[in-house]
Amino acid sequence: MPSIFSPIPAEIERKAPGTGGKPPVDRRPTGGGGGGGDDDWRKHRRGPREVLYRTRAFVFCALAGDMMFFLVLVVLFYARQAGTHMDPRTLRQVGDWHPVLLPPRTRIEDTVLDLIEGLSDPADRYDLICRAIGGLLTTAPRLRRALEKRGRFRDRREAESALADAGQGALSNLERWYLRDVERRHKLPVATRQARFKVGGQSIYLDNLYEDYLVCVELDGTAAHPAGEQWRDKRRDRRNLAAEKIVTMRLGYLDLCTQEARCRTAGEVVGVLRDRGPWVGAGCRLPGCPV
Fold first, then answer.
1. For labelling, which of 71, 128, 153, 246 has a CA lying 20 to 30 Å from the CA of 210?
2. Global pTM?
3. Which domain holds residue 223?
C-alpha cells in the first residue's frame, strides 16, 4: 500500500504569492527608528539634473534683482529729465531738455534761441542762425517750432523774419541783404538758392541762379570765399559758362553794405537779366535808384 504524505504548516507558508500564501514583506529601512529613512537615502543620491535646476533658479533670481534695480534707475532718470531746470544765465525755468544725453543739456534749437536772444546786433544773430543751419546741426523749421513754443522772446518778429529768410536758402548776411534789399525790393524774379549742378563729374552749388535767364549771382564772403581760394571760383565761372552757358556775377561786401550800393547792384543785375530774357525789375522808393 503506497505511503501518503501531507504538507506540513511550514511548507504552506512558503508558497508563492497568489497561491494562497502570505504576501511578500518589504524589508527595506523605512526610517522608523532605525536611522535609515527614505529622505536620507535620497539626499545622498542627488544627480546633476537637480544641481542644474538649482543653479538656474539662483541665476534667474539674481538677474531679476539686477533688472529691477536698473529699471528703477531708468525711471528716476527720465523723471528728472522731464522736470524743469533753472537756467543760471537767464534765471528762468527750462523744461525742454534732451531726454537722453548726459550731463543734462538743452536741445540744439533751444540753445540757438537762447544765444540769439542774448545778442543785440541783428547781423550777429543772423550769423549764428546761419552757422547752426549751415553746419547741419538743425533746420529752419525746427527752430521755428521751438520759437513757437516760447511764450516770451526778445525781438520775436525779427527772429521770425530771420528764420523765414534762412529757410529760403539765404545762409549768410550777404545773401540776406541781397534777398531782401536787391531781389525783393526791386521786384526781381525769385532765384533758386544753393542750386546744385554737376560739372565735370563734380557737384557744385550756386548761390542764386536765375534758370530762365542763365544768370548766376555769387556772393563772396570772407568765410566761404577766402582770398586764397578765389581762383577756384573764377575757374568754376569759366566752366559754368563753357558747359551750361551760365553767366556769373560776383558780389562782395562793398556791393551790399549800404542801401545806395544795393540799389546800384540791383541796377547791374537787372541790366544783365533784361539782356538775356523778359523785362524785369522796378525801381524802389529811394531817390536816384537806377532800376
1. 128
2. 0.63
3. 189-276
